[in-house]
Write a structure and sequence with these properties.
2 domains, alpha/beta, five-stranded mixed beta sheet, Uracil-DNA Glycosylase, subunit E
Length: 182
């Protein structure tokens, strides 16, 4: 294609053009595009998405994540989980040969805007246990309640929050029936 007006190049080419050393003498230091030395085009500012924001700031978690069990909670007044709920969780985990060091507990109430993708990148979970519907990230809105399922090859169980189990033996039984095989 032959272009008569060199100013048209700015509309045809929106990428940088580099010259070989053997071609530089042809331009004598003048800009290749008329007016290129006056008003260079500014790149579009990068829009920060929630996933990118979380990549910059890792989620705080309780535990050492040794076995890759990620547990999501939702407590407005606790950093990770209420003390009595943690004791009940640890008793449950002990029955499955897990300790607090084997898991990572992330409180979604303390991590506004956190997306599951960012947690997967950071913690590399092998299983995901969500304690309460309120603790379920938006990405899991199609996962059935209290039934183990897969989400992108990750076993997921969204089940009762400990606050719901502390007052109901039926909820405790339903929770244990799913967790013991999870």
């Amino acid at each position: 294609m032959r272009v008569e007006d060199t100013a048209a190049y700015r509309y045809l080419f929106n990428e940088d053009i580099f010259l070989l050393n053997s071609e530089k003498h042809l331009f004598n230091g003048e800009p290749l595009i008329a007016g290129a030395d006056k008003a260079p085009l500014q790149p579009e500012p990068e829009v920060e998405t929630p996933a990118k924001a979380e990549e910059l700031k890792p989620a705080a978690y309780l535990g050492q994540n040794k076995k890759g069990l990620l547990i999501l909670t939702y407590y407005n007044d606790e950093p990770f989980i209420a003390a009595d709920h943690q004791a009940a969780l640890e008793a449950t985990l002990k029955r499955k040969d897990y300790t607090i060091d084997d898991i990572a507990i992330v409180n979604l109430a303390g991590n506004n805007g956190l997306v599951l993708f960012a947690l997967q990148e950071q913690l590399k979970p092998t299983k995901l246990l969500v304690l309460g519907k309120q603790a379920a990230p938006a990405e899991l809105n199609k996962i059935a309640f209290n039934q183990p399922q897969q989400f992108e090859n990750l076993p997921v169980l969204i089940t009762f929050a400990f606050g719901e189990m502390m007052t109901s033996n039926e909820n405790k039984k339903a929770f244990w029936e799913q967790v013991k095989n999870f």
